[in-house]
Each structure stands twice: as C-alpha cells, then as structure tokens.
Amino acid sequence: MVQLLGLVITLINGLLGLIIWRRLRAALPRHRRLVDALCAAGWLLLATPALLMAVASFSGLRALHRHTPDTLSMLAMGAQVSLLLYGLLYGIAAIARAALRALRARRPATGAQAARANDGAAAAPLPAGAPLPAADVPEEPVDERRRNLVVAATWALPAAAVAVSMGGVLASRQRPVIVRLALPVRREMTALHGVTIAQLSDVHVGNYMDAERLDELRDAMNALRADIHVITGDLLDHHVSQLELSARLLRGLRPARGQLFFCMGNHEYIAARSASIPAIVKGLEEAGAQVLVDEAREVRLGGDRLWMGAIDYPSRARPGEPARRPTVDGLARALGQMQDDGAPRILLSHHPGTFRAARELPFDLMLSGHTHGGQISLGRIGDYALTPMLPAGLYHNGHYEHRGRRLHVNAGAGGWLPVRINCPPEITLVELVPA
Hints:
By secondary structure, the protein is α/β, with parallel strands linked by helices. It is built from 11 helices and 14 strands. It is 45% helix and 17% strand. It has a 6-stranded mixed sheet with strand order 1-14-2-3-4-5. Strands 6-7-8-9-13-12 form a 6-stranded mixed sheet.
C-alpha cells in the first residue's frame, strides 16, 4: 500500500513538474536554460522521497533520513509538500476559471453584442483566396504591463506554495503550544480540584527528533508542574534502538505526584519488530512509565481518587505478535476495572477512532493522538477537520464531545513529516475543576 502511494505521488510529481516547467518556459522565453536547470534540480530534490517510498516502502524513507543530513532531508520533504500544495492551488484556480467560462457562455448577449454579431453576419463574404483589407489586421503593440502580470502570475502560485511549506518546516521545530482543557468533577471531591494532567503524544524519537529537541520537550512538560503526566503512544518511531533516547526522556519527566502513564501506539509495535513487545514494554517501565494495556489503575489524590485506564492500539496482530483484543473487549476490560463511584474516569487511547466505540460507555475523558492534527490544518467544520493529509474521517485534532463523553486529540510533538501548517506541536494540560 505504501509503495503504491509512493508511485502515485511520483506520477503526480511528474505531472505537476511538467506543468510548472512549461508555464515558466512560456513566461520567461529569454531564460529557458535557467528554467530548465532550476526545474530539474527542484524535481530531483522532491522526487527522491516518493521514489524511495515506491521502491522500498517506509524503509526507503528511513534510509533517506538515516543517511542524509536533517537539513537536506527536511528540505526534500518540504519541497514535496510545496509541490502538492501547488497542485491543490492550481486545481482550485483551474476549476474557478472553468466555472467562470461556463457562466459567461450561459449569459445572454447584450444589445450591442447582438448588433455586432448581426453586422458580421450581414457583411458579404470575401472571395476565396482574397487578401483581407489592411484595416482588418491591425498590428497590436506588445503590452509589456500585461506581459509582466502574466509572468508574475506564473511565479505566484509556486512561490506561495514554497513559502507556506518552508514556513511549515520551521513551524515543526517550534516549542510546543500548551492547549488547556477543563474537566469538571464533583464539587465534594475537593482534593481533586485544581489537579492537572499533562499529555504528550507522537514524539517519534529518531524521526527529526534528536536529544536536543527531546530536552526541549522535557523542559516544556516539567515547566507546567502538572500533577500527573501521560504519554499517548508513538514515543518511539520504528526501531528498538530508539528506546535509549525514549527512556532518557521518560526519566527526565517530573510529574508533581510522581505518576507517569503510557498507552501503546502503533509505532511501539513497529519498533517491537526489531526486538519484541515485552522488550519495549520493559524498557518503558524501567524508565518510570506505567504501561497500561486494556487495564486501569486507581490514582489516590488526598482523600479522593480518579481512575486512569488505557486501551491497546486497535490493530490486527502481525506474524510473531500476540493476538490483540478487539477494541470493544479492551474497553470492557479497562472500564470494568473502574468503580462507578463518581470519581472521574480517564481513558488513554492512541487512536482517536476508539471514541466511536466508547462514546456511549461510562467514562469522562479520552485522551488520544495518532493523527498529528493532520499536520496541515485548514480549520474545522463541526467534527470534521479540514486537512489535505487526512481528507476523510472524524476526530483529527482538538476537543470533541458526545452526550457528556469528552475526547481530546493531541496534535503531537513530533511527526514523520517535518512540516506543520496551522498545526503547531502540542502539549495538552487538563485541569480538574469543580462542576
């Protein structure tokens, strides 16, 4: 599937590259050699990741990242997003032009236009081969102003796409924003009032996430002085070797009440293929995380308590992996370990799609990740996030509610694509407040 996607992207790259090349050559006839060289260099830069995907799936992208300086790798990925954005803008403009032409064609002719048409029809036809009168073929001077506008328009869309994408590359490296969320709890549970939970998700250690960047995330989490820390999966990216840096981050976290909870993401299972699932879980737990898999724990806070549970990543087991429970069974198991005593019940689930199966069940808040917020966000209409990266589905980014059941989808702190547009890295801070 990934290889097919790489092939499709490569074909799209070729088509869009041909469009840009032809438009630039037509707009800049005196500089065609320069246009040829720039287009060839740009296409080679952005074609490499997609070609590697087509040939070697995700292994090709990982090899590119492993053997290429981060700056060049990020430029290549940024160039790819630039071209796709250009294609989107070009498509919108083409549709708008076609719609405008269709409207003009359907518009009835004015009196003056009809008179000119009648005059033309009434004029006697010239004999075959006869030259046109000189007055009918006037030589029009070249309109330099119009020509300059055409050249500027030719550059405008590619330049806008490049500027937005490279701005997204820089935005992916900024400090995470703090998204605050209030969770109402019963007024009589005074020991819970003001308790805070900091959520980190989708760090993807090793994928544009080095030790320096991890230290920034650690410091940002600790600066919140939250009582409890949770990580909702994809701390690792694809290999057990990334466990060392992951454990370093976990050991550096300082939740005020000493509790750090972790739920499994799909990339923990991907990393386990180079070792084993028990080895990954053991390494995380030795670093101080409580790894919850379809289970719940009681968290005592003064004279009151809350329940913290986590759902396994919803996926079929691959060869060599133990069979995983269906999501519905995992929810029943985790919620079955939480007493219905009025204490807040919080669920961690890497995949926000779990909310579909859980939203009629008795819990208060689900914290998820996985989507990276779409990485390119164009806003939201109701529950539908507008993003070209994830064009279909619900629950991509932010807060959702269904009959009192709440879901928050963290936009993630890292990512396998080093571009974020209107979707900065995020840390979520949940505060328990009196209802």
